[in-house]
Amino acid sequence: MPYLLNLCYLALVIVGSPWLAYQAVRRGKYRTGLGAKFLGLVPKRAGNRNCVWLHAVSVGEVNLLAPLLAEIHRRHPVWECVISTTSLTGYTLARKKYSDHTVFYCPLDFSWAVRTAMRRVRPDCLVLAELELWPNLIRAAREHGARVAIINGRLSEHSFQGYQRVRWLLQPLWQQIDLIAVQNEEYAERFLALGARSTAVHVTGSLKFDGAQTDRANAATIKLAQLAGIAQRDVVFLAGSTQQPEEALALATFQSLRTRFADLRLILVPRHPERFNEVAEMLDAAGLPWQRRSRIAADGLLPEARVLLVDTVGELGAWWGTAHIAFVGGSLHKRGGQNMIEPAAYGAAVSFGPNTRNFRDIVAQLLGAEAAVVVNDGAELTAFVQRCLTDHEFANQLGRHARQLVASQLGATARTLAKIEPLLPASGIFDRRDRSAA
User: Fold this and answer.
1) CATH number at residue 239
2) Any idea which residues carry the catalytic annotation?
């Protein structure tokens, strides 16, 4: 099986090589970490402390790890946690956010790469955020003697149907996973239907709620608000994690309302760094005074600029704390939505588009609690922002309901760690062969 998978992966790389080359040349992707990705040459770990290898694909999953890492440090300060990512943006953020930990690119699922990485890291437990099923990686972990866990597990109806078609092929893989900590009962039933062991599946809730900051007066948000010159009277409309054409729609909303509402400010935070310049060109073409976040320190504040482009990575969580009205991007696009818990936790009046399949359960909770609004196009986005500006009770009620919902969902981190703890040995020095054979 490993060799068959290797051949399939190699075929995919060969077929996709023109596109990969284009992305590398034009957008700077896939250039870094080649030794780790193709050969498993990740940093070699020294010592024999208990080790947890946490894998987070990109920015969303990297942020997801924050409360869990904090709880591990609080309860098990001697554990060593290493973090792998797949995307460049995820790697960049992880290096910045978790500078006290070893961060590296996860090897591609070639058998030789993952086995080499396992020998170098020597983890006691491999923890996969949400659902990253890489057969060779999981097999290598088990061969090495490490336990395998999925945390914050979710399985959409679409993914479930796809996995069902190859259930016979994936059945042995599910049996190798020691823990599947899922967000809700519906996901638990789907994992069980696919063949996961009943003793492995546990409902622990969503870590995304625990990771959300609720205090607008936190140091990071205050620092950014001061940097941007946001005044007490300003009403901030923030469109975050946006994709094309969502920035243009948010800008159109701002342009249509700014003369009537002089205190309105617009903050744009595109999802992907490679689009920063594209959005900058759009703002230039609009003819409005605007400013890049990365240039404020060098150029000073431009008092006339009521539009800010956040062209930095890893700050969105803190910027949401400045928002009174929020639009969560990737939802008027095919992306499937982005994390809307962060603005909800701050008590912003939250909106997003109809394409939110990646957060279907969270969206259902928000809408059920009357804590968010769906906007289907630019016109509805403008109408939503205008209503928030004119009907303060409407906006305040949305924010109040959102904060109450987030507060009611806290505790997933502690429940998740309680399930991970039995997977690690009692001490940092142990015989892997004995545990592997058990």
Assistant:
1) 3.40.50.2000
2) 61
